[in-house]
Every structure is written in structure tokens, then in C-alpha cells.
Automatic annotation (TrEMBL), chains A, B:
<protein>
    <recommendedName>
        <fullName>Trafficking protein particle complex subunit 6B</fullName>
    </recommendedName>
</protein>
<dbReference type="GO" id="GO:0007399">
    <property type="term" value="P:nervous system development"/>
</dbReference>
<dbReference type="GO" id="GO:0030008">
    <property type="term" value="C:TRAPP complex"/>
</dbReference>
<dbReference type="GO" id="GO:0005802">
    <property type="term" value="C:trans-Golgi network"/>
</dbReference>
<keyword id="KW-0333">Golgi apparatus</keyword>
<dbReference type="InterPro" id="IPR024096">
    <property type="entry name" value="NO_sig/Golgi_transp_ligand-bd"/>
</dbReference>
<dbReference type="InterPro" id="IPR037992">
    <property type="entry name" value="TRAPPC6/Trs33"/>
</dbReference>
<keyword id="KW-0256">Endoplasmic reticulum</keyword>
<comment type="function">
    <text>Component of a transport protein particle (TRAPP) complex that may function in specific stages of inter-organelle traffic. Specifically involved in the early development of neural circuitry, likely by controlling the frequency and amplitude of intracellular calcium transients implicated in the regulation of neuron differentiation and survival.</text>
</comment>
<dbReference type="GO" id="GO:0005801">
    <property type="term" value="C:cis-Golgi network"/>
</dbReference>
<dbReference type="InterPro" id="IPR007194">
    <property type="entry name" value="TRAPP_component"/>
</dbReference>
<keyword id="KW-0524">Neurogenesis</keyword>
<dbReference type="GO" id="GO:0005783">
    <property type="term" value="C:endoplasmic reticulum"/>
</dbReference>
<dbReference type="Pfam" id="PF04051">
    <property type="entry name" value="TRAPP"/>
</dbReference>
<dbReference type="GO" id="GO:0006888">
    <property type="term" value="P:endoplasmic reticulum to Golgi vesicle-mediated transport"/>
</dbReference>
<comment type="similarity">
    <text>Belongs to the TRAPP small subunits family. BET3 subfamily.</text>
</comment>
Length: 161, 161
């Protein structure tokens, strides 16, 4: 049974609902920003909730990199059914997480045809990463970038307090 | 790892988003109907999509009861991580599916305190059942009833064509 399909379908419904409710309004560019932040905020809360459950029985993390590794392996596997393929860092608070086959983009044709649709489908996940990190004590900015579907790079910049 | 938590959190976000966007409008009773049908429609499409994946490799069903049994066992297990506890039918197209511990209601206190909040959290699932059945060729009406949390009864009335 396709267990992961539930999340994928539900996510698509959310994206299309959020965009549809704003579609009738006038200032399209401003509304696009609103849609992205609505989805990002939903993702943030889901990420917070999930990490709380996931780390209930986990030992504490020894540093930021350790947190990021947990996110790339355990967290990613549970949500997206695979691990992050590549994690890079400059050791100064910036991390790049690359997923070569990001599950929320696999519905699209590979290549560049639907590239401009991609940001819609990444906002929720950016929020989810930010929420998970936030609950582990790391505040940061999370952005996503797609150059060829269905691969995706998430950039996390941790803000030092 | 709490795999089912993802669906539960995402579902809560959807419910709260749909209700919040309507909260500012005036005619509350009419808006409540709109919220329920928005959630029901989202569930319908998710149910359609899921059943298509789930039944890809399944043999065809011999009758309506066979379809309902599949829904109560395989479909329910995948989505809600448990089977339906009790299935009853009058053999004339009406089915009652009882889940004694419905996962989308387990966040609430048991008992009657939040009973009036329950319908919000059932609309999506009613739609999902209706969508799944529809894709298997059964058109029907699906309603839900809660008398004590977190148990829930779904009633399916198949419309004979």
C-alpha cells in the first residue's frame, strides 16, 4: 500500500486550496507572497509538532551539525520516505540539504517545463524544516531552490543569537 | 518514529485554516456549511487518489460488501493506522462503520466536553470515504456521528443507480 501517498495528496490539496482562495483577488504578486507565507506557516507548525514526537526518546544533540544530521536522516525518512542525499555546510551556520528526488516534486515531469510552479510546492517543506529546527533551539532562515525537477536544494542559515 | 503524526498534524492545520479564513465573515451558520463542504471536497479528492494507488494490484471486488471490507481493513489501516472495529449492514445498501478510537479525535479529552467540535474533524474523513467508494463505482452519502469521544460511527448509504 502506498503509505506516503496520503501525505502527497493532502499536501497537493492544501496548496491548491490556498492558491484558489487567493486567485480571485486583484494584486496577484502580493497574493503570491501571502500564499507562500500561509503554506510556510502551516509547515512550521507541523514541523514543530513532528519533531516534538520524534525526539521524545532521542538523546540530546551535541551540536548544530548533529541536529542537521538527524533532520537529514530520521526526520526526512519519516516525512518523505527517503534520506537527504547530500548535506554540506560551511561550518559557519549555513547548511545545504540536497534531495535528488524530492517526493513533492515527483508528480511533475522531469526537466524544466514546470520549473516556475515549483516554489508553490516547496513553501510548506521550508516551513516544516524551520519549525523542526526552531523546536530544537535553532532559529534560522530556510529557502529552497530547484534547477532541475525533481531535485531540490534547501538552504538553512542558522541565526546566531 | 510517529509516522501517523504527520497526517494528524496536517489534518489539524487544514481544519484550522479552512475555519479561520471563514471566521471573519458574517453569516456564521452558512459559513459553517461552507467549511464542512470545503473539507469534504478535499477529502473526496484525496480518497479518490489513494484508492487508485491502493487497488492498483488488487483483484476486483465481487460485491459491495467486499468493497466495504477492503475499506474497513486495508484502506483504514493505511490512513488511520488501525482497522474499523465493527462493520454492520442492512444488506440494502446501508453500512455502519464503527471506529472505537478514531485517530483524528484522540487529541480531544474523552467524554462529551468537546462533542460539538467533533464535526469539524470528521468532514474530511467522510469525504475521503465517499471519494474512495466513488472511484470503485459506488456512489453514496457518507455521514458521521460521535456520541462519546474518541469513538465514531460513519454511515454509508449507497445509491442504487
Amino acid at each position: 500500500m502506498a503509505d506516503d501517498a496520503l501525505f502527497e495528496f493532502l499536501h497537493m490539496e492544501i496548496v491548491s486550496h490556498v492558491y484558489k482562495e487567493h486567485a480571485t483577488r486583484e494584486d496577484i504578486d502580493r497574493e503570491r507572497v501571502t500564499c507562500v507565507s500561509t503554506l510556510e506557516a502551516m509547515g512550521f507548525r507541523v514541523g514543530q509538532g513532528l519533531i516534538e514526537r520524534f525526539t521524545k526518546d532521542s538523546p540530546s544533540f551535541k551540536d548544530d551539525l548533529d541536529v542537521m544530521k538527524f533532520l537529514c536522516k530520521d526526520f526526512w525518512s519519516t516525512v518523505f520516505k527517503k534520506q537527504i542525499d547530500n548535506l554540506r555546510t560551511n561550518h559557519q551556520g549555513t547548511y545545504v540539504l540536497q534531495d535528488n528526488k524530492f517526493s513533492l516534486l515527483t508528480q511533475f515531469s522531469s526537466g524544466k517545463q514546470y520549473l516556475e510552479e515549483a516554489p508553490k510546492y516547496l513553501a510548506f517543506s521550508c516551513g516544516m524544516i524551520r519549525g523542526a529546527l526552531s523546536n530544537l533551539g535553532l532559529e534560522g532562515v530556510v529557502t529552497a531552490e530547484v534547477s532541475v525537477m525533481p531535485s531540490c536544494k534547501f538552504q538553512v542559515v542558522i541565526q546566531k543569537l
